[in-house]
Request: fold
Amino acid sequence: MKEDKRKNNGGHKNAGRKSKAEEQKLIEKLTPLEQEVLKKFEMNIKAGEKWAIELFFKYMYGLPKQQIEADVKQTMINWIEEKSYDE
Reply:
């Protein structure tokens, strides 16, 4: 039986979601900057920056429900199979 060589299948070894420990470390590192970032964000909203206003509404109220118009046409095909019974 062949050896399982999944680790050699390619792809980037650091690809995928970060571990919880790495995520927690990043949160702890960025938390002290939170108030400063929020003040800058507020300044940009008050200055009328379009990107800041859009971002605010997307996170505060979510994106509007997207409607996709489906134009579906069905065609029915009748298949007649001839069966032969060979004995």
User: Anything to note?
Assistant: The two ends are 45 Å apart (CA to CA). The chain is about 40% helix and 0% strand. The CA atoms of residues 7 and 15 lie 13 Å apart.
